[in-house]
Design a protein that fits this description.
The protein is mostly helical and 364 residues long. The protein contains 11 helices and 2 strands, in the order E-E-H-H-H-H-H-H-H-H-H-H-H. 61% of the residues lie in helices and 2% in strands. It has a two-stranded antiparallel sheet. The chain is elongated and about 95 Å long.
Length: 364
C-alpha cells in the first residue's frame, strides 16, 4: 500500500522507516512478564498448599486465619502483577510514551511485597520466641528490622506515585534494595537461632538425633533459598536501577516466602503424625512407644511441644531401658497417637523441662 504525495513522490506505507524505533523491552517489561509467569506458577502451588492445610486444620485454630490472611495478600500481589502486564503490553500496545509512565498496580508492588514478606517473617519470629523465652531480645531486634522494611516499602510506594516516570524512580530504587538487605539480615538471624537451638537438643540417641538433623536441614534449605533471592533482588535494584529485573525477582521472592511458610505448616502435620508409623524420617516410630515406666505420664502431658518453624515434631526424652524381667518387645508395645495442637506454636517447654518431667527414671 502506497501514498502519492503532492510533489509526485510515492511513499510505501508499510515501510518500517515511517514508524518510530522502539527500544528493546527484554530487560524491562520482558523481565516483568517472565517474573509474572513464574509468580503465577508459585501462586498455584500456594493454592494447593492452602487447600491441603485447611483440610487438616481445625476450624477455630488461629493458624487458620493466619493462612487465610496470607492467601489474601498473595492473591492481591498476583492481581497487581497481572494488571501491570496487561496494562503495558495489551491496553497500551504500540504506545511508547506509556511505557515510561507508572501505573497504580506497579506503584503498589513495593508495599505489597513488603507486607507479604513481613507477614511470613512474623511466623518465623514467633517460632524463635516460643523455642526459648531468652531469645525475646533477638525477636525484639528482628521486629525493629521488620518495621524498617515496612518503612522502606511504604517510602518506595509513595515515591512511585509522586514521580512521573521510571527514569525518575530509578534514583530511589535503593529503597527497595535497602528493604531486601534488611530482610536478609533478619532471615539469617532467625534461621541461625533456630539451627543453634535444634543442635542443642541433640540427645546422643541415634533415632532422636536423626529427626533433629532432618529439621536442621529443612530450616537451612528454606532459609537459604529465600536469602539467595533476596540478595539477587538487592543487587539488581542497586546496580541495574533502569531495568525491571529487580521487580521480577521481588515478585518471585514474595511467592517463595509464602510457599516456604505453608510448606512448614504442612510439613509439621505429616512429620508429627505420619512419621510416627512410617519410615525413618520416621525415627520417631521407635520413640513414641508406651513404656511401663511411671515417668512417662507427665512427659506425655508435656508432649505437645514441637520443634522449629512450627514443624510440630515431638521429641521426648528417652526413658531408661527397663530390667530384663520386665522387658517388652517392640511388637508388643502399643504405639501412642499424640494429638498435637493445631496452631503455629512451637516448643512450649524448654529442653531442660523434659528432664524435670521425666524424673529420675528417664534421661535425656
Amino acid at each position: 500500500m502506497s501514498l502519492l504525495l503532492p510533489n509526485g513522490q510515492r511513499v510505501n506505507l508499510n515501510s518500517p522507516a515511517l514508524f518510530p524505533r522502539l527500544p528493546s523491552l527484554d530487560g524491562t517489561y520482558g523481565a516483568l512478564l517472565v517474573g509474572t509467569f513464574i509468580s503465577a506458577i508459585l501462586y498455584g502451588m500456594t493454592l494447593h498448599q492452602v487447600y491441603r492445610y485447611l483440610r487438616t486444620c481445625p476450624s477455630r485454630s488461629p493458624a487458620r486465619y493466619y493462612v487465610l490472611g496470607l492467601l489474601f495478600l498473595d492473591t492481591f500481589h498476583t492481581v497487581l502483577c497481572m494488571h501491570a502486564c496487561y496494562w503495558y503490553l495489551i491496553s497500551n500496545y504500540y504506545k511508547p510514551l506509556q511505557l515510561t509512565k507508572g501505573v497504580w498496580s506497579v506503584d503498589l508492588l513495593p508495599v505489597a511485597v513488603g507486607c507479604t514478606i513481613i507477614t511470613c517473617q512474623c511466623f518465623y519470629a514467633r517460632r524463635v520466641y516460643l523455642i526459648e523465652r531468652k531469645y525475646k531480645y533477638v525477636v525484639v531486634f528482628v521486629i525493629l528490622l521488620f518495621l524498617a522494611v515496612l518503612g522502606c516499602a511504604v517510602a518506595a510506594t509513595a515515591e512511585a506515585f509522586i514521580l512521573p516516570n521510571y527514569s525518575d524512580f530509578s534514583r530511589v530504587t535503593w529503597l527497595t534494595s535497602a528493604g531486601f538487605g534488611i530482610v536478609v539480615v533478619a532471615d539469617a538471624l532467625l534461621t541461625g537461632v533456630l539451627m543453634f537451638t535444634l543442635h542443642r537438643l541433640r540427645t546422643g540417641h541415634q533415632r532422636t538425633d536423626s529427626v533433629i538433623d532432618v529439621l536442621i536441614l529443612y530450616a537451612l534449605c528454606t532459609g537459604l533459598l529465600t536469602d539467595i533471592l533476596s540478595v539477587l533482588a538487592f543487587c539488581f535494584g542497586l546496580f541495574l536501577p533502569h531495568k525491571l529485573v529487580y521487580v521480577a525477582i521481588d515478585n518471585v521472592t514474595a511467592k517463595v516466602y509464602v510457599n516456604s511458610v505453608l510448606a512448614a505448616l504442612n510439613f509439621r502435620h505429616s512429620f508429627s503424625h505420619d512419621s510416627i508409623s512410617h519410615g525413618p524420617t520416621a525415627a520417631l516410630s521407635g520413640i513414641f512407644k508406651r513404656s511401663r515406666t511411671p515417668a512417662w505420664s507427665p512427659m506425655l502431658k508435656a508432649g505437645r511441644s514441637t520443634l522449629g518453624a512450627g514443624l510440630r515434631t515431638v521429641v521426648p526424652c528417652m526413658p531408661k531401658r527397663p530390667a530384663a524381667s520386665h522387658t517388652s518387645t517392640a511388637r508388643d508395645a502399643p504405639r501412642l497417637s499424640l494429638q498435637l495442637p493445631d496452631d503455629a506454636s512451637v516448643l512450649h517447654m524448654r529442653p531442660e523441662a523434659y528432664v524435670r518431667a521425666a524424673g529420675s527414671e528417664s534421661q535425656c
